[in-house]
Amino acid sequence: MTLTPDRAARTLARIAPALDCLLAQPHVARPGLAVSMALDTGAGVVELGDLTLGDLSANPYPNDRIARQKRDLSLRTRLPGHRVPAHLLRPTDSEWTGSAWVEGIAVGCAGLTEAQDALVAHWIALALALDPAPDTV
Questions:
Q1: How far, in Å, CA of 136 to CA of 24, rounded?
Q2: How far is residue 94's CA from residue 22's CA, in Å, rounded to a whole number?
Q3: CA 101 – CA 83 distance, rounded (Å)
Q4: How many CB atoms are closer than 10 A to CB 15?
Q5: CA–CA separation, 58 vs 101, rounded Å?
Q6: Alpha-carbon distances, residue 113 vs 33, 94, 96, 97, 125 (angstroms)
Q7: What is the pLDDT of residues 68-121, one digit of tens each?
């Protein structure tokens, strides 16, 4: 089954309660998270969607833009953000890490700490890659 924006949205809806639980943890202490997802098919890039979990209205950073920058870095380099060597960075890249690259799926997250953004990005990328048939579950 091909990964589409609709399938990605259904997969995210199934794991959203776990992500909401993460945001509620005292050690996270952040009210929201921006997520940006895309798939590199080899023949082109399919935008899988951008979304916000929780509430980012009081956050002073443009987390939606930062999440896309992180995602685009992983799309371009085919690496998770924390593994991108400095010589591959461009002035338009985010100054923070927090993206995943799994089997052609790039996910960028922004709104938490860099480590937490990376953890959630990998969690989402793996959910998208491993979800067998969200249309039937």
A1: 30
A2: 24
A3: 10
A4: 16
A5: 29
A6: 10, 14, 9, 9, 18
A7: 999 999 999 999 999 999 999 999 999 999 999 999 999 999 999 999 999 999
SS3 sequence, the chain?
CCCCHHHHHHHHHHHHHHHHHHHCCCCCCCCEEEEEEEEECCCCEEEEEEEEEECCCCCCCCHHHHHHHHHHHHHHHCCCHHHCCHHHCCCCCCCCCCEEEECCEEEEEECCCHHHHHHHHHHHHHHHHHCCCCCCC
Please give the share of the chain, as a percent, with pLDDT higher than 90.
82
Both tokens of residue 126? 């793996």
Answer whether 19's CB lies under 8 Å from 120's CB.
yes
Confidence of residue 2 (pLDDT cuts 50, 70, 90): confident
